[in-house]
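To whoever picks this up:

The parser on our side crashed when reading a file containing two proteins. I've narrowed it down to the boundary between the first structure block and the second sequence. Both blocks are reproduced below exactly, byte for byte. First block:
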Amino acid sequence: MTSAVGGVASLAARAGGTVVRQVRSAIDPSGARAAGPGQPASGWLAVTVFCEQAALDTAHLPAPLAELGDRVEVRVRPAPGGKGTELAARLRDRGSSGALSRLSGHDPQADVRSALRQAKQVVEVGEVLAVDPVPHGRRTATPGGLLLEAWTRVAPKAGVR
């Protein structure tokens, strides 16, 4: 009996998700593209920058975003509640970027996330802040240490999840 209730709940959840996607695509047709795992449907990633909207010009982007060139679309608009400016970017050509590409360090979506965070720092602070995470001395190679090293190499692009 429990499995029947679980099956009905699962079916209801999928149907609800389908309805939500249909409503969203009716409201905003530009966001109707299918999203990969962990990606917003529209593809836009945004940060709130503590500055006036006039200080950010899409023709003269901060260096981290400008380096991505024509690979990204960028928009600037007032942040909700009048709390600064929203700087958003998305890839023009959104190919698949699954977990394997993220782990290997070749995730274009991660490049956009990283560029947005760095652009925010450049606008607000004047430079990209960096920390050297490797402690001094030698570490003994352990399976856990190897995993930690792999995630440390990917972390500058991935950000907080």
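<<boundary where parser fails>>
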Amino acid sequence: MTDLQTRRGPVRTAPPTGAAGAGTGAAPAARPGLLLALVLGGQFMAVLDTAIVNVAVPTVRTDLHASGAALQFVVAGYTIAYAVLLITGARLGARYGYSRLFQSGLAAFTAASLACGLAPATGWLIGFRLLQGAGAALMVPQVMSIIQRTFTGRARIRALGLYSAVLAGGIAAGQVLGGLLVSADLFGSGWRPVFLVNLPIGLVLLAAGARLLPDLPGDRERGFDLPGLLVLGAALGLLVVPLVLGHELGWPLWGWVLLGASALMFALFAVVERRIARRGGQPLINGRVLGAAGLLPAVGAVFMIMLAFAGFMFSFALHQQAGLGRSALRAGLSSAPIAVGFGAASLYWQRLPRRLHGVLPPLGTGLLAVGYLVLGRLLGDGSGVGAAPLLLTAVLGLLAGCAYAPLFARALARVAPADAADASGLVVTAVQLGQVVGIALLGSVFLGAVDLPASARGSGHALLVTTVAIGGVVALAAGFAARAGREERRAEKRAGRREAGEEG
């Protein structure tokens, strides 16, 4: 029996974290390993571009004579479009086919990357970055849906671990690769290779996708829920835009107005979805998904872990560059241990004794909160990043991965294959929003606690303040993780009683 399903029917091998329905009637794939490499390659490029541009900002400013606000939109435009359109991308995949939307999103992302690399002026670059984010939003939700539909049992758990490793590695790799490309100044091209590097990779993936992607047709009869999409898109936009731009613009009044309006739009979204469900329609996120045991608290914990992870990576890089005077490349390399630890734990956590799997998320997040506080104390005097802090960041990465990866698997374990697109859109949006909010919120905490240009001691103090905030966020994540475990155990007990009653 292969790891992939065949046309003969679903393979019902449940993952160790809970009962998961198998996929439905997916086309066979001759090389599942290559298929996984293909879709995770697309995911990696999308994550990479959330970080790789940061180190190119000074050269973009010089080359294009860009203003500070324009540069902020160059960096943030991609993230804004990406975060706002993820749910839309998931629903389009469910309607028109996951493989087709993956290829379409990959083609749009690759073309937009080429356009960014050739942009003649700042305005063009901002517009192309928005298109690049839209392409990523079409592509990324299909990755999780393809994994859910084609892998089962332990193969699915391993695929989800690799997915988590790509999320962590992409953030660190963006800083390192961006520093390398800008420092190399290939043929005098300055900042442009940070976008053009996507072109050869994208073309290879597109060619491979034509051969490897399975036939996963969508359901054209499924409702599109345009009102829900519009309201949710507006709510996410109203939330993300002020968070991303607020600190740079001095937190203007309009930013607070937009944040308040986003809360109202989220409430309106809930009302719209309930009305659609009562009328027998198909809401944007199926009620079966939201009702899956442990899913919502698991998603909440995943959101907070990624918020803390992305916020720390951003603040740690700022501390090294602004406070310690390190180059972008060296700062990126110093971030590698936490990313490697995160990725290794995401891949291998299931090899730990089964009795530990249930307690990994709350235990890991609890220890992670303490670890961030200890690291803040070590770096708070601005003395530098030595061997002990780097070793501790690797431990933090391991703890974060041991908490995040089981939660990620748990969030999807009890979702039916027919709801894979809804679930993947929800989880991936939580991950992406966690990164956006973490960088915006915790970055603001760091920048608010330091005066630029910063001294090493002042920057260290700001990092200490930021790690205290991070510790509080992760402690809250521990509570959500514990609740997810309790809900799952109660669901398992109810299922056991039902089975016992049926046998009786």
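After patching the parser it read the second block fine. The chain is about 75% helix and 0% strand. The CA atoms of residues 275 and 281 lie 9 Å apart.
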